[in-house]
Amino acid sequence: MKQNIVQFILIYIFSIITLLFLSIIVNFVSISIFLSEAVFSYENIFIFVFTNSIIFFFLKKIFVNKFAELLFIIFSIFLSYIFIFNFSLNISNLIIFITTILIFNYLIMSYFDKKTFNKFFFEQSFLKFLKTTGLIFFSFIIIFPFYLMFVSSLKSQMTLMQYPTNLSIPFTFSISDFFSSYIAVITEYNFLTFALNSTIVSFVTVLISLLFSIPGAYAVARLRFKGRTQLSSSILLVYMVPAIVLVIPLYVIFSQLGFRNSLFSLMIVYPATTIPVALYMFQGYFKGIPYELEEAGLIDGCSRISVILKITLPLSIPAILSVSLYVFMIAWNEFLFAFMFLDNQEYFTLPRGLYTQLDDQEVPRQYLMAGSVMITLPVLFLFFLFERYLVGGLTAGSVKG
Amino acid sequence: MQKINKESRLAYTMLIPTISIVFLIILFPIFGNFWLSFKEVKLGDLRPPQPIVKEKVITKNIEIGSEVIIEYRFRNSSQKKPIFNIMLSDIIPQGLEPIQIIEECEVVKNKFHCYFEKWEPKFNKRVKFKFLAKDDFDSNQFDPKKSKPNSSADADNILTNFKFSLKNFQKIFKKVETLENIKVTFIYSFFATLGAIFLGICAALLLEKKFFGKGLFRGLFLFPFVSPVIAVAFTWVYILDPFKGFLNNYLIDNSIINEPIFFLGIKKVSFFGLDFPFTLFIVILFESWRYFPLAFLFILARLQSIPKDLYEASEIDGASKIQQFFYVTLPQLIGVISLLFILRFIWNFNKFEDIFLLTGGNAGTRTLTVQVYDEAFALTNMGTASAVAVIIFILLGIFVFIHNKVTPKDIEE
Asked: In Å, how far is B268's CA from the nearest CA of chain A?
């Protein structure tokens, strides 16, 4: 019994921490996004959790599991009602309050999920606690910067300066007002040209990478030739060569040859850096295709080339898709080479343009954020559309950072 | 036997494009980097010295039969180096007949050619050519600028000659900064890798079991990694800005701090008598945030392939969940974690953009890669920049060697 009480108290402390965590985020959201007052005051949380969990504990001792949960929910709503009564919340905060409490009750029920207190009871509730708080924590640290980027891009200069902590979306009825920073970035800072350049370079990079790496990968995966093992083990070595080691000599060579300041220079450097990993990914995939299929084609009188075109390639469409996406992403996001090679505005890619045009203390921050959103959005859009393939590409090609 | 021959020939043809582009854009520049590191090349030396010729008509009103003076200005573009074997040629405008020409030049048909043996550095000379306007001269069409003088010359190109010196390396190692930078690079790579792997393990454990909305969380967790570095770096710079930024204003509004903190501009903080590199720490946090998704993906894949009967067996033996984690899960993950560690370490070691965009290498965060950039474009010294790049390359070679020793041959993935 004594041990049970200690465990109970500990779990009770976890519940408080979870609720604190939840309420911090709820308060944060309500203050900054809905611009209302704080929903929770922190002193009340302790009283609330205390009464709530004591009641839950006794209900659990008296009734069967399901019935106890039902009673508990009814009771906690009743309890919240008393609280609301005392602290006079407005309607929107009331809704937020009740939802949070319900979520909290669901969590606390899952913490106390065992019928009896046994040896692992405490540990299991602890792990559940860690899991929920962990998920909340990770989601928060990931969503927050992206949300801030997005919201800041919609603000006017004045609201940004006056209320830097205000995170509400400034809804207006006129679309040109709402997207004013985007319009400014496109009209004043040439972002459409940059976007076009980025698109061209990325697509050409994907195309060249595929054209070069597919035959190479097939040769490494299927054909017997001298130096095959050395070749397949050195592919990854080539991939570890840092861009910064290449950039100085390439700068010198391209300057001498006179095509440094052009999109063409990027179109040969990007594929060269992505081909090794594309080749590595493809040869892994090709090895997984049963050789009997190709053998059947060969016996039927197809040549190697037509076997590749008619049997291997149609079977590896998922790999082609994931390699293309991965290469596209690298080319789209690339900054270093574009930064070093390009001087003329007309050739700038998006990252290069964003760096020179908008990263300036003179330029309002909302423009910088609007530019950032414009770079990020296509990538995230592709990512959501083809998540499964991209994840495959990432795991296979993640040697690269 | 013949079949194998045919096959290998096909294989080589299929590999030629890949091998040639890798050779041209990766292996040759590596060689070029070593080459440059032994030469004292400045950014300005990239343009070889050239002869520059400009022409100017001096006579104002040209009439038929009158004398026309055209002034040519010859100049050596370099301030330091001579050029040799200069050949010049220009078309004589329609209707003009040369009368007086310097001795180095001769007239061939409607052109004149000049040859000079050597122009000294800073060579700058004006010469006057006299012409006679003949009957068919048309002052309306007269435009000597229409035909630009051609010129060619040999110059000693520092990039291709065979003079080598160790001065770049001497310069680099004389700087106190370099050793400091190496130290910073190691600290940065090590802790950023550690942080990313730690967060990755946590995230993977959170999503190990199936639950409602798991796919959504998995997609969300990859956001920092797939987004362009420039966008996320600028967003974080904006959040951490001492005056306009969200974080400082939020902390001040809630009276947690009284004065703004320069998150990206504090080199050292005294912490119980120890110097704590504050901004480096912030950069490491950013790096962990940005790269944990990768560790997360790897570890999640490995976690899900751990055989379930291991857990069942340990459960029967009475192990708790935490014990299971330490005695079953972690030993199964060790392989993938060590592989991830060395790979991420190498890539963090190579990283340039992240630090460059966050701090520009200031406040004690100058890594070797940022130093390469600074040497090349801030100090305009390509030679020393290449020397630093060579140091990076050599250190990297050591890591790759270790990587090959550590990785078991069968789990290359």
From this structure: 25
Looking up residue B179, the CATH number of its domain turns out to be 1.10.3720.10
Within 301-320 of B, beta carbons closer than 8 Å to A belong to 301, 320
> Of A135, A245, A272, which has the smallest distance from its Cβ to B22's Cβ?
A272
* Residues B142, B275 within the same domain: no
User: Within 10 A of B262 (CB to CB), how many other CB atoms are there?
Assistant: 15
ipTM of the complex: 0.83
User: Chain-centre distance of CA B25, in angstroms?
Assistant: 13
pLDDT score recorded for residue A58: 66
Between these two residues, A19 and A364, which has the higher pLDDT value?
A364
Name every residue whose Cβ is closer than 8 Å to that of residue B352 and which is 6 or more positions away in sequence.
A242, A243, A244, A336, B367, B369, B370, B372, B373
CB distance A401–B221 less than 8 Å? no
Beta strands B150-155 and B83-91, pairing class: antiparallel
The owner of tokens 């205390």 is A50
Give A333's contacts in chain B (Cβ within 8 Å).
Answer: 227-230
Please state, in angstroms and rounded to a whole number, the distance separating the CA atoms of residues B247 and B249: 5
Domain membership flag for residue B44: no
Chain B residues inside the 8 Å CB shell of A379: 226-228
Domain limits for position B12: 2-37
Asked whether the predicted pLDDT for residue B261 surpasses 70, the reply is yes
pLDDT, position A401: 42
Whether B349 and B238 share a structural domain: yes
- Record: fold of A183-397: MetI-like fold (1.10.3720)
pLDDT grade for B135, boundaries at 50, 70 and 90:
confident
**Number of domains chain B contains:** 3
Whether residues B96 and B117 fall in one domain: yes
